[in-house]
Structure formats: structure tokens, C-alpha cells
Amino acid sequence: MDWINALVQGMLLGGLYALFAAGLSLIFGVMRLVNIAHGDLIILAAYLGLSTTVLLGLHPFLALLIVMPLMAGIGYVLQRGILNQTLGPDILPPLLVTFGLSVIIQNALLETYTADPRKLPGGVIETASVDVGGITMGVLPLLTFAIAIAVIAGLQFIFYRTSLGRGFRAVSDNQDIAQLMGLNKAHVFGVAMALALAVVAVAGILLGMRTSFDPAIGGGRLIFGFEAVIIGGLGNLWGTLAGGIILGVAQTLGAKIDPGFQLLAGHIAFLVVLAVRPNGLFPRVEH
Amino acid sequence: MSALLSVSGLQKSFGAVVVADATSFDVRSGEAVGILGPNGAGKTSLFNLITGTLPADAGKIEFNGHDVTKSSAAARCKMGIARSFQVPQPFGGMTVFENALVGATQGAGLSGADAENHALAVLDETGLLAKANARAEALTLLDRKRLELTRALAAKPKLLLLDEIAGGLTEAECRSLIDTIKAIHARGTTIIWIEHVVHALLAVVEKLIVVDFGKKIAEGAPKEIMESAQVKEIYLGVDPDV
């Protein structure tokens, strides 16, 4: 029963990892940009959530109404102001610039909020739980998992059922032709980053309610996001959800063996997938 | 009638290779113009300059009364310039219908059911309706050429640029394509057509422009141009003095 419990808890944790990964997957899919600052942006969103809850006395979920548009705005400006200039045939500039951005965000957070671990006050929802067939599940992890599914389904809908998504796919397919068909590449990329950072806002707030955070933990979240994307297969959003779940399950099962094995078990699962299926478990069938 | 497209003193070179050398010409609204010239004469580069894929070194391009010389490719498309490519370049990962929808929503600025109906109407006209749900990368060459035309038409262009769209087609395929292009022209769409299949060109166009080494060397009624010494020299290798 303990093992089944660990499995279930791991799946729920995977929902959070899928949220870390969804934004990464989206922007890589649209513009082939690997965003090293992604983890730090998640932590930035958590801190923005903290400021909102402290200043306005809002519940973190309500803070999302402010943090999501704020992060989306930051994403659009960041993309059009800086990142678009780094995109080109050479893959190095975006890596270097987003790495620099990561350092800047970390230090700005350190200056503003100090290095003390903080946490978003979730209230009763943090400790509430439901009992299903002898397995106790926290309401917050369950909610996180449901939100992850909703976010992935929403992104999937935007990608394949809307004019905006067709724009994303057209630009991703052939940038030059897309421009000739009336798509402004710079704007399309800006909107993609805005969307990715809106998802990052959700991830940051849920992370902040689940555990304590400090300015230095962004790098670790980036790794979890990357691993979930790679395990699931590049460019496949549902695969990313599966990748997050596999990573979460590996971590909780590893922790069950020995609490010190938690992170290691996740990394080992990632390496095994990479060795056996270098393109991930569910690579996109297109292309 | 006023000029829809007015190109004056257009200049473009890649190092020593000149692809447009003081090129000037006007295309009237509703006109169909053919462009002839040997390979490497700068015909496709001329299209790239008109659509905005290539920035001009000097000169001016006016479209519908606006100076578009510095406008982006996306802006020119929205103003009504669309083209097809000699080597088809569909959005391979998308369906034929979605390819057309991109033109209808982004280029023509339609949305919702209007965009879908327009895309379907264009697919019907170009004969691709039966393959609307096929993935673009799975199409045959002929269908890919049709898709090039479809996508350009979906953007509701005032000016349609066709780049060797008849090349590589069988005689029957070519005839049906000519009929389609004639119908598009009859609706009032202005056309500039680069083509080596001369009889196809002559079936549609009212004016011919001949270019070589980036220079416009002749312009006029198709019959006169085809009988001119310069064209015979370029196409048949006939020495005009003989």
C-alpha cells in the first residue's frame, strides 16, 4: 500500500513538473529557443505572487489574476525587446543571453527579497486531504494535477484549433513563408513567450503554495522542466505531461527506497529514457 | 488606368552579381504581365524584391499608391501582394485546409466562418478540395503547385505573383492550370507571371517584360516581343545579324 501511495503522490507531483515544462516545450516548439532562465522566471512568478498576497491580502489563487497578465506582459516585452534579436542560425546567442538573464533575475530577487526561504500562504487548502481507497491525497496536489491537465489541454486547443495556433505552427514550420503570408514573426514569437510565461505564473504560484522557495532554486526547476520535456518527447504537449508524471513517480519511488535517493532517482529515470529512446517516449509524429 | 505596382530604378546586387539593374516598369490594375528571361536573369529576385523578402539596395517600389520599398514582407502581404514559389514550400506539418486558412486569416484578415468559407472556395477553385484534410507534405508535385496557388489566393491578393507554376506539368495539367489562372485574372486580380512554358504565358498575359542580367531589355505586347531579335537571341541562340 505504501508503494501504491508513493506512486500516486508521484503522479500528482508530476502535474507540477508538467507545468514547469509546458512553457519550455511551447517556446522551443514555436521558435527553437532554449530558455535557460525558465526556472528563474518560475521563481520570479512565485515572488510576484508573494508580493501580491502580502500587499493586497489576496489568496494566492486570486493573485494569479494579477501575476498571470503581469508575467505575460513581461514575456512579450522580453521577447520583442531582447530575445528576438538573439534568434538566428546560430544557437549560441539565445543560450548565452537567457543564461545571463537567469543570473540577473536571481540577483535581483536576492536584492529585493533576501535569501530567506518564503512560502505562499495557501490557507486550509494546504493541509486539506481526501481519502480514496485508503490512499490519502492532498487537495492542493490534486488541484495542481487537475490544473496541469487543464493547462496542457488549453495549450493543445490553442495550438491546433485556433488562428493563433496556426500562426505558431506556420512560423515554426517555415518562418520566411509565414512572413509572406502576412504573419509578423516578431509579434508571433512575442505572443508565444507571453503565453509561456502565463503558464509559468501558474507554475510559480502552485510551487510557492506547495513548498518554500528562495531566489536560488530556479536552476533545479529548470532541470525538472527539461527532463519532463525530453522524457515526453520534444514538441508533444501531452508527452510533456507524461514526462512530468514519470519524473515525479521516479522521484517519490526513489525517496521511498531512501529519502536521499529522491532527486537521483529522477535523474536516473531521465538518463534511462534518453539511452533507450533518445527522442523521448512520445516524439511528435509530424516532421 | 493607374498603376497598381510601380517599380522605378530598382537596384540589387550580391557582390558582383547584379540581380536588378535600374529596373523600372509599371503594372496597371487588372493587367496580366509575363516575365521572360534566361535562368539567372534575376526574375525570381525581382519577385523577392517586390514581396519584401529581399531589401532593395536602391530604387522605389510603389504598390496601390503607397511606397512599400521599406515595408516588411508581412505588411506587403496584408496590403495585397501574394506569391507562389517555383519550388513549392507548403507548411508541411499542416493540412492543405490549414495552409489555406493561414492565408485567409493572416493575409486576408478574415476570421471564423468567413475565413473557413473563403479557404474552402479557393480550394474548390484550385481543385484541391478533395484533399483538404491531407497533410501538405504528403502531396504530389502537381498538388503542391496547386497548394502554392491556393495559399496565395487565400490571402485575397490584389497582385498575384506566379513563379514558374506551369513548369514540370503535363500538357493536360497545364491546360487546366491556364483555365484557373484565366478565371482568376477575369475576376480582376492583377497578375505577374514568370514562366518558361511560353505558350502557357501567351494564353494569359497582355504584356511581356524581358529581363537579362538584372536589366529590363524589352517590354511590350506579347506578339511583338516574341518576334523581336533580342528574345530570339536569348531563347533560340539565334544571332540577330544572321
Overview of this protein structure:
- The complex is a heterodimer of chains A (287) and B (242).
- Chain A is mainly alpha-helical and 287 residues long.
- Chain A has one domain (2-122, 137-276): ABC transporter involved in vitamin B12 uptake, BtuC, CATH 1.10.3470.
- Chain A is built from eleven helices and two strands, in the order H-H-H-H-E-E-H-H-H-H-H-H-H.
- In chain A, strands 1-2 form a two-stranded antiparallel ribbon.
- Chain A is globular.
- The N and C termini of chain A lie far apart (43 Å).
- Chain B has helices at residues 43-51, 73-79, 96-107, 112-126, 141-154, 171-186, 198-204, 222-227, 229-236; strands at 3-14, 17-28, 32-36, 58-63, 66-67, 81-83, 159-163, 190-194, 207-212, 215-220.
- Chain B has two domains: 1-80 and 157-242, 3-Layer(aba) Sandwich (Rossmann fold), CATH 3.40.50.300; 90-155, no CATH class.
- In chain B, the strands form two sheets. Chain B has a six-stranded mixed β-sheet, with helices on both faces.
- The model of chain B has no long low-confidence stretch (mean pLDDT 91).
- At the A-B interface, helix 6 and helix 7 of A face helix 2 and helix 3 of B.
Q: Classify the fold: give the CATH topology of chain A.
A: ABC transporter involved in vitamin B12 uptake, BtuC
Work out the strand percent of chain B.
25-35%
Termini gap of chain B: 41 Å
Q: Could you tell me how far the N terminus lies from the C terminus of chain A, measured between alpha carbons in angstroms?
A: 43 Å
Strand content of chain A: under 5%
The most extensive interface between chains reads: A-B, 20 and 31 residues
Rg of chain A over CA atoms, rounded to whole Å, is 19 Å
- What structural class results from the helix and strand content of chain B? alpha/beta
Low-confidence stretches of chain B: none
Number of strands of chain A: 2
Individual helix count of chain B: 9
